[in-house]
Amino acid sequence: MERKLYSARLERKECISETAQCYHFDFAIDELESFPFSAGQFISTVAPDQNGKQQTRAYSIASAPRGNHFELCVNRVEGGFFSNHLADLTDLPPGGFVNVHGPHGHFVVKQPMTDSIFISTGTGIAPMRGFAQWLFPENGPDRSEGKDIWMVYGTRHESELYYHAEFEALAARKSNFHYLATLSRAGDSWKGLRGYVQEHVATIVEERASRLGQTLPLAPIDPGTLAAELKFDIYAYICGLNNMVSGVREKLTGYGWHRKQIIFERYD
User: Any long-range contacts for 167-171 (C-beta under 8 Å, 24+ apart)?
Assistant: First the structure.
């Protein structure tokens, strides 16, 4: 079935990390009054390359639904057609257009709402930002239902922590939103967490289990239980490169977590 293509107009472009060459984009689809999607979904961008060949790239939406707008977080990749096409002012200046289709994907917050751990590295933060904006809108009802939400975000250097101030402000505003930024190659001036996301996810799971009187690893669920009957009190959402995703999944399954509790998206 042919996908509906929309023409998305660039309203704003900002380099949010010079060292990582990461850009934030705010697009509007003028032909629509609203562009409905679920936080965590992705869109596909379409454009012809220098040889006239049609190129398509998928990007997680880095925002919650807002009228006819959607936002992206994209690292420029050396030799990469689409990241350079989006980042270069000559190719896409403010007011310029790019064709997109979507939304797509099932990387969305499960209902009913539970305690949740959002785990990401690099531009894997994009759908997590969408989750956070949807759960805790500045002007609107809190959708978290008082559940504990941990955002564990890892990268190498402080300059590569995208939206860091935004998440710190949210954690200050909402007592049930816990923001844990960790650096694997932190400089001496960094006062926050160090190491890899797996280590800090393990601490969250172990401390939570102790607080609730749970014994780890959890008792296995009867394999005969129907998927519709599975009930969990916490989910993990993971987005990033394969090695990180696999490492976190392995850590959580080692605690007895069921595979249905672990929702992930890889971008390599």
Answer: 167/132, 170/132, 170/136
Tell whether the model's pLDDT for residue 141 goes beyond 70.
yes
Q: What is the pTM of this model?
A: 0.96
Please identify, in words, the CATH class of the domain defined by 6-104: mainly beta
The domain spans of the chain are: 6-104, 115-266
DSSP conformation class of 66: B
What stretches of the chain show up as alpha helix (H) in DSSP?
81-87, 125-135, 164-173, 197-212, 242-254
In terms of Cα–Cα distance, which of 31, 32, 66, 60 is closest to 44? 60
Reply yes or no on domain 115-266 having CATH 3.40.50.80: yes
Please give the average per-residue pLDDT across 164-191, as a whole number. 97
* 231 contact partners, CB below 8 Å, separation of at least 6: none
**Predicted confidence band at 78 (pLDDT cuts at 50, 70, 90)?**
confident
